[in-house]
From TrEMBL:
The keyword Transit peptide does not apply. NCBIfam families: ruvA (TIGR00084). The gene is ruvA. It comes from the Bacteria. Belongs to the RuvA family. Keywords: Cytoplasm, DNA damage, DNA recombination, DNA repair, DNA-binding, Hydrolase. It comes from Pseudalkalibacillus berkeleyi. Homotetramer. Forms an RuvA(8)-RuvB(12)-Holliday junction (HJ) complex. HJ DNA is sandwiched between 2 RuvA tetramers; dsDNA enters through RuvA and exits via RuvB. An RuvB hexamer assembles on each DNA strand where it exits the tetramer. Each RuvB hexamer is contacted by two RuvA subunits (via domain III) on 2 adjacent RuvB subunits; this complex drives branch migration. In the full resolvosome a probable DNA-RuvA(4)-RuvB(12)-RuvC(2) complex forms which resolves the HJ. This is Holliday junction branch migration complex subunit RuvA.
Length: 197
């Protein structure tokens, strides 16, 4: 398995980042590709998970090993595939997910796209007591330095890529528009907070 790739960030999309290493561009699916927005043209190390199935070969990338470890735990749960696990991690607060599992908070877990009561119960059954005591300090948010005029539009596209419906997204758009001009990453994080409340 590929453990990590260090290369140049070439460009980002709503659901993936392309990292060039040895003249090869690797398409890497990420929880929130916009965290690499300020890294375009820079060298970056991304920790990998290689997903192989009969009809699929896909790469999933993470900013740190803790995030990857949680992803690998989530995909072991019946009913959660790699895309579902990415949507959960995209909340930007993996420690909240761990806390919800440990506290058997089904209501919080069912707020994620694709997670119904049955899957939430399965997450608790399979993972409670088996996750490290992760805290928010393991998932510190990086300070935002750039502001994109297209930030809100890109963020809304990213929410669709994460599996949220147009109806859900439409409800939170007015609250997002009230915000001061934010970067795409900040808009995504704010939107996910609103969707999970």
């Amino acid at each position: 398995m590929i453990d990590y790739i260090t290369g140049t960030v070439k460009y980002i999309h709503t659901d993936h980042v392309v990292l060039e290493c040895g003249h090869i561009g690797y398409k890497i699916n990420c929880p929130n590709p916009f965290v690499y927005q300020d890294e375009i043209g820079n060298t970056k190390t991304i920790y990998m998970y290689q997903h192989v199935r009969e009809d699929i070969l896909a790469l999933y990338g993470f900013e740190n090993l803790d995030e990857r470890d949680l992803f690998m735990k989530l995909i072991q749960v019946s009913g959660i595939g790699p895309k579902g696990a990415l949507a959960i991690l995209a909340s930007g607060k993996p420690a909240q997910v761990v806390t919800a599992i440990e506290n058997e908070d089904e209501k919080f877990l069912t707020r994620f796209p694709g997670v119904g009561k049955k899957t939430a119960r399965q997450m608790i059954l399979d993972l409670k007591g088996k996750l490290p005591n992760w805290t928010d300090t393991l998932f510190d948010e990086k300070p935002e330095t750039s502001v994109s005029p297209q930030g809100l539009d890109d963020a809304l596209e990213a929410l669709v890529a994460l599996g949220y419906g147009q109806k859900e997204i439409k409800k939170i758009v007015p609250q997002l528009e009230e915000q001061e001009r934010l970067s795409t990453d900040q808009y995504i994080k704010k939107a996910l907070q609103l969707l999970l409340n």
